[in-house]
Design goal:
The structure is a single chain. The chain is built from four helices and ten strands; from the N terminus they run ααβββββββαββαβ. By secondary structure, the chain is an alpha+beta fold. Strands 1, 2, 3, 4, 5, 6, 7, 8, 9 and 10 form a ten-stranded mixed β-sheet that branches.
Length: about 200
């Protein structure tokens, strides 16, 4: 191969790497928002159920110090906004089947409590689960990663609760319509990524 062919091959490889990076929302989110003093542990594309019972596809990043709930714009490959929660602020990790709304006991999930009844609820949809992995097993892997990382910081004021999760329905039919139409979901194939 002559020098011109080598340059073209190198250029093509670099373009392919840039394209792959743009298409990896977990990696992009990690690079965009996680500070250098925090070690990235894992990331997942999950369904976050907000306080109005609306299902929203979000990226959840786990670092050595915090959890980041990220709204990612899949079409432009950019972070729209995010919320950082210190792991030491998480007092209860509740795990169980989710009842109410569109799930009604069919999906396994988790609820992370911080302080006075402030919580975030997460589950997966069929696109979030890796090929051949059962939805509950996938969620348990995520729960175990979070619990192990939280306990590494401190075991004080932290417990795991094994009770089913009841969704709120504060907006009633509006939430149900929003969820059934999938307005909070993005039409792409999510992946998970763990640090090596």
């Amino acid at each position: 191969m002559d020098k011109i062919e080598q340059k073209q091959a190198t250029s093509t490889n670099e373009e392919n790497q840039k394209t792959a990076q743009k298409q990896d929302p977990i990696r992009n989110s990690n690079l965009a928002i996680v500070p250098e003093d925090e070690k990235f542990i894992a990331g997942w594309i999950l369904i976050s159920i907000n306080k109005w019972d609306q299902e929203q596809e979000r990226i959840l990043l786990l670092t050595s110090k915090a959890i980041y709930r990220v709204k990612y714009l899949f079409d432009t490959h950019q972070v729209d906004h995010f919320k950082r929660s210190s792991l030491t602020e998480i007092t209860i990790l509740q795990k169980g089947y989710i009842y109410g709304g569109t799930t009604n006991g069919t999906l396994y999930g988790m609820r992370l409590y911080q302080g006075n009844n402030n919580y975030q609820t997460f589950t997966t949809n069929s696109r979030s689960v890796e090929d051949g992995t059962h939805q509950k097993d996938f969620m348990i892997t995520i729960i175990n990663d979070i619990a192990r990382t939280r306990r590494a910081l401190s075991t004080q004021n932290f417990c795991i609760s094994d009770y089913d999760i009841t969704r709120s329905n504060s907006l009633g039919p509006l939430s149900t319509t929003y969820n059934k139409l999938g307005w909070g979901l993005w039409n792409t194939t999510p992946t998970s990524e763990s640090a090596s």
